[in-house]
Design goal:
Strand content: under 5%
Number of helices: 20
Oligomer: single chain
Helix content: over 70%
Length: 483
């Protein structure tokens, strides 16, 4: 037993999450929906404990267990911390909305925990089998969360669309995995890299890799596998949409990086072409289709597609600096997204939740602090200089230029200029149009806290408060991938 116990050390955070989720499920079954607040608080405690145990691994040494299928390193620690923060913030801001819509069920925080567990397994996957297990654990819980509001047709429709298209993407991913295994003879990332180094580019492995990339591109909602995103974002309950836009995107991007850099480093030329294509397509589709949106959640859906395109610019560089820039971008994107969706939770009137851009008219005269916070977040999403979003784009475009991909950086710059229009339109509506009816308020202190912190982190003080320490952490994480 003593000889086996140390092999569990790398998976202690995941064990905390799994045991905590199962224990809370048993407790919730006996106490019913009246225990929602208690379940949420205990779920937050589980996330904190998992995060603390994660920080004990902050040395970043590469550790493997389960026959090399699970790996813990600095890259995994960095991205898992982001995922835990994203999940915890969503739990904090969900309560008032779910109670108002009578869907405050005890299963909600437990599903968040299980989805987060799946993401953590994805991030630490060092084998095509563990990759798929983590991905499906995350996906199955997200399908349920999307359809959580069973009495609302659009929520049920969102869950069904997500499930059907998600099953299609999983099939593509599995087909790619089967091709890679059939032609390379292994599912282990380390052995794959060694095998391909000796044999060179194998057409069967290359095709399998492309199918895998298609399945993963669906998970990050990159074009042309983005078709589910606007409908699912619009139909899902707003806290669930905030969750979709944050933690799962970061986990899927981390998995994307892990697979391509760890398993297929010798096929850089092949996968780089695919990444460049989906990056350009995502940036352009996200920029131009969002121009005609009137629903805020659909606009943010296309915005997230565009931002995934910008993040992929860092991966397309295929260098350590590129991955470092991608990690910086993901951390900044998380703060912008969570802050923006937290503001959406405050847009309530007696007739229900408000989701149209026109309903924000004159917000600056009804609630100036909220209008200023949302304006800072919109400026940051647009990449206005000195705000956090600007630094995110600066580093990914710089990495692309250093890798000789200056046309990709130029396209990203042009897409940013186009996307600035719809962010500035929201600011114009809030500050320069005749006021609409005031919002009701009563959204809770947690929501206000999240909005305030997000606005501060994305303010002109962002470089000192956030970006400077983030650069060191991202560099430490990127080095773990052994370029």
């Amino acid at each position: 037993m003593n000889g086996e116990l140390p092999t569990l050390i790398p998976v202690i955070p995941e064990l905390v999450m799994a045991i905590g989720a199962m224990a809370l499920l048993m407790l919730g079954v006996f106490q019913g929906d009246k225990s929602y607040n208690q379940m949420t608080n205990l779920s937050l405690l589980v996330l904190v404990i998992a995060g603390v145990t994660m920080l004990t691994q902050v040395g970043g040494e590469r550790q493997m267990t389960f026959g090399g299928m699970f790996i813990t390193d600095a890259f995994a620690v960095f991205t898992k911390i982001l995922v835990l923060i994203g999940s915890g913030v969503v739990l904090l801001i969900s309560g008032t909305y779910l109670r108002d819509h009578k869907i405050a069920r005890f299963e909600y925080p437990i599903l968040i925990l299980l989805a987060t567990l799946g993401m953590m397994i994805m991030i630490s996957a060092n084998n095509l089998m563990s990759l798929y297990v983590g991905l499906e654990l995350q996906s199955l819980t997200l399908y349920v969360l999307a359809a959580m509001n069973r009495d609302r047709i659009r929520s049920t429709e969102a869950g069904l669309k997500y499930f059907v298209l998600g099953a299609l993407s999983s099939g593509m991913l599995l087909y790619g995995i089967s091709l890679v295994y059939g032609f390379a003879g292994t599912t282990d990332f380390t052995y794959l890299a060694d095998t391909l180094k000796g044999e060179g580019a194998n057409i069967g492995v290359t095709i399998g890799m492309v199918f895998m990339m298609a399945g993963l591109a669906f998970k990050v909602s990159a074009v042309p596998f983005h078709m589910w995103t606007p409908d699912v974002y619009e139909g899902s309950p707003t806290p669930v949409t905030a969750f979709f836009a944050g933690a799962p995107k970061i986990a899927a991007m981390a998995l994307f990086v892990r697979v391509l850099v760890s398993a297929f480093p010798n096929l850089l030329h092949e996968w780089q072409q695919v990444i460049i294509f989906i990056s350009v397509a995502s940036m352009l589709v996200g920029a131009f289709i969002a121009l005609v949106q009137t629903n805020i959640k659909r606009l943010l859906a296309y915005s997230s597609i565009g931002h995934i395109g910008y993040a992929l610019v860092g991966l397309a560089a295929g260098t350590q600096q590129g991955v470092e820039a991608l990690l910086i971008y993901l951390a900044i994107y998380l703060t912008m997204t969570l802050g923006t969706f937290a503001t959406l939770l405050t847009f309530r009137r007696s007739e229900g939740v408000v989701e149209n851009i026109s309903d924000l008219a004159g917000l600056s005269r009804n609630n100036l602090p909220m209008a200023v916070a949302l304006a800072v977040l919109m400026f940051s999403l647009a990449g206005i200089p000195l705000l956090a979003g600007f630094w995110g784009k600066w580093y990914v475009f710089l990495a692309a230029v250093q890798a000789g991909l200056w046309p990709l950086a130029l396209i990203g710059l042009l897409a940013s200029v186009v996307s600035a229009y719809y962010y500035l339109r929201i600011i114009k509506v809030m500050f320069f149009e005749e006021p609409a009816a005031a919002f009701d308020g009563g959204h809770g202190r947690a929501v206000s806290l999240v909005i305030g912190v997000a606005a501060l982190v994305n303010s002109p003080l962002s470089y000192v408060l956030f970006i400077a320490p983030l650069i060191g952490a991202a560099s430490w994480a990127a080095k773990a991938l052994l370029f």
